[in-house]
């Protein structure tokens, strides 16, 4: 019998020897350098929590059949996704708008290939999730950067600069991170409206990466870009996945929601050309787990959000009180907290050295997200409090020697 509440986010779970990218010493040694194989990892964005029980249960049930041949998408997958977005985001999605994809990063690459040509520009808003720039450059396109600006301690979009950048006819596509990784903003309706309007006026197609849309802190509300107006819906492709929300990233499953029929057909044809499956891709178990969590893990998510909120306040108060000057930006969404260490007056190289070599902690360093991220650090707070406390204590002790 499944216990009524089968989760305990405080429980520390040993992830060694599971091929965890976040914890695997070999990966840490490559990413952070030799001798750093045992850093305490709060970097890559997955959670050190068990996924909801219903995901395991549904996969085990299917696994027991023991034939894992070519499998079409269960109609229940679309139904679960539609119902989830209706309940959580008041978005009425039609079933034929949904295409599946192995992941949001692969989808980003496919869309760049389909909707831009070599030499074209793709707009991003730095500091931002670094695979965006890697995908743009890797496909032979150019980055058009519309850097975010900090106004009274909060990141905002720079619309004057956006208008200038999108006026360049070589800018064909904008990758829009909503909610924003790493700065933690949940964009307000007026911001979405202005962003969408400027892109529309300049014929820039929007790829709204909304992978973090369910990780919204109490008091904030995510608005799906496509729900603002029909015009916006027709000029956008939205990426969705249960992978961040329910810790399923290893299952390689995401969806693209494309209300515009022409765009959808173009993506479908491109997917077929790439051989990622007639309906885009994804995996047998990814689809099963996604369906299960959308249908049966809302209570797990509500508890998770409260836990993350507590973790965030612990991090913010500890760092800001014990390291005067350090600023931890308000976390409106995602489980990735963004902290500015520049006020300590140390060089960004020294900040990185102290974190890695003296604190022994692996964080995503700010300059990975763009030059304007130098001296910032991103903490993945989706871990048991004990792990977060250990990391924060080590970071505080290491910096105390220098201030
Ligand atoms: C904004 C954003 N998009 C995409 C991804 C990864 O997507 P996927 O694992 O589906 O490729 C992440 C992971 O951290 C992310 O933060």
Spatial order of strands in the largest sheet:
2-10-9-8-7-3-4
Rounded Rg:
21 Å
Give the topology string: H per helix, E per strand: HEHHEHEHEEEHEHEHEHEHHHEEHEEEH
Overall helicity: 40-55%
Which class best fits the helix and strand makeup?
alpha/beta
Small-molecule binders: pyridoxal-5'-phosphate
- In whole angstroms, the N-to-C terminal distance is 54 Å
Q: Give the overall silhouette.
A: globular
| Beta-strand proportion | 5-15%
Number of domains: 2
CATH architecture of the largest domain: 3-Layer(aba) Sandwich
Low-confidence stretches: none
Average pLDDT metric: 96
Helix count equals 14
Query: Any idea what the CATH superfamily of the largest domain is called?
Result: Type I PLP-dependent aspartate aminotransferase-like (Major domain)
CATH topology of the largest domain: Aspartate Aminotransferase, domain 2
Q: What composes the largest sheet? A: 7 strands, mixed
The top level CATH class name of the largest domain: Alpha Beta
Number of beta strands: 15
Q: Could you explain how this protein is built, in words?
A:
41% of the residues lie in helices and 14% in strands. It has 403 residues and is α/β, with parallel strands linked by helices. The chain has two domains: 25-52 and 298-400, Aspartate Aminotransferase, domain 1; 56-296, Type I PLP-dependent aspartate aminotransferase-like (Major domain) (Aspartate Aminotransferase, domain 2), CATH 3.40.640.10. The strands form four sheets. It has a seven-stranded mixed sheet with strand order 2-10-9-8-7-3-4, sandwiched between helices. The relative contact order is 0.16. The model has no long low-confidence stretch (mean pLDDT 96). The structure holds pyridoxal-5'-phosphate (PLP).
């Amino acid at each position: 019998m499944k216990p009524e509440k089968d989760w305990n986010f405080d429980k520390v779970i040993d992830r060694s020897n599971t091929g965890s990218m976040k914890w695997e010493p070999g990966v840490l040694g490559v990413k952070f350098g030799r001798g750093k194989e045992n850093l305490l990892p709060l970097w890559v964005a997955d959670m050190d929590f068990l996924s909801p029980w219903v995901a395991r249960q549904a996969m085990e049930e299917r696994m027991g059949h023991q034939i894992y041949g070519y499998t079409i998408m269960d109609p229940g997958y679309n139904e679960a996704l539609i119902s989830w977005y209706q309940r959580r985001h008041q978005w009425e999605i039609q079933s034929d708008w949904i295409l599946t994809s192995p992941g949001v990063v692969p989808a980003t690459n496919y869309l760049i290939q389909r909707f831009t040509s070599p030499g074209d520009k793709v707009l991003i808003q730095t500091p931002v999730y670094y695979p965006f720039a890697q995908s743009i450059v890797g496909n032979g396109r150019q980055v058009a950067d519309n850097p975010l600006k900090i106004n009274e301690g909060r990141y905002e979009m720079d619309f004057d600069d956006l208008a200038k950048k999108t006026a360049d006819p070589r800018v064909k596509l904008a990758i829009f991170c909503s909610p924003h990784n790493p700065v933690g903003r949940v964009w307000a309706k007026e911001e979405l409206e202005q962003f969408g309007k400027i892109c529309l006026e300049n014929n820039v197609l929007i790829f709204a990466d909304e992978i973090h849309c369910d990780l919204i802190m109490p008091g904030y509300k995510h608005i799906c870009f496509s729900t603002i107006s029909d015009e916006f819906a027709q000029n956008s492709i939205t990426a969705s996945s249960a992978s961040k929300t329910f810790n399923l990233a290893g299952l390689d499953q995401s969806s693209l929601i494309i209300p515009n029929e022409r765009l959808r057909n173009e993506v479908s044809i491109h997917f077929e050309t790439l051989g990622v499956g007639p309906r885009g891709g994804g995996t047998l178990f990814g689809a099963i787990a996604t369906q299960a969590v959308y249908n049966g893990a809302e209570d797990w998510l509500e508890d998770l959000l409260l836990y993350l909120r507590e973790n965030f306040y612990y991090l913010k108060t500890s760092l800001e009180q014990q390291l005067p000057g350090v600023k931890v930006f308000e976390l409106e969404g995602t489980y990735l907290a963004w902290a500015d260490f520049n006020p300590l007056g140390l060089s960004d190289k020294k900040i990185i050295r102290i974190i890695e070599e003296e604190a022994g902690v692996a964080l995503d360093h700010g300059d990975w997200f763009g030059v304007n991220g130098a001296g910032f650090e991103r903490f993945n707070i989706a871990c048991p409090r004990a792990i977060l406390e250990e990391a924060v204590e080590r970071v505080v002790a290491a910096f105390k020697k220098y201030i």
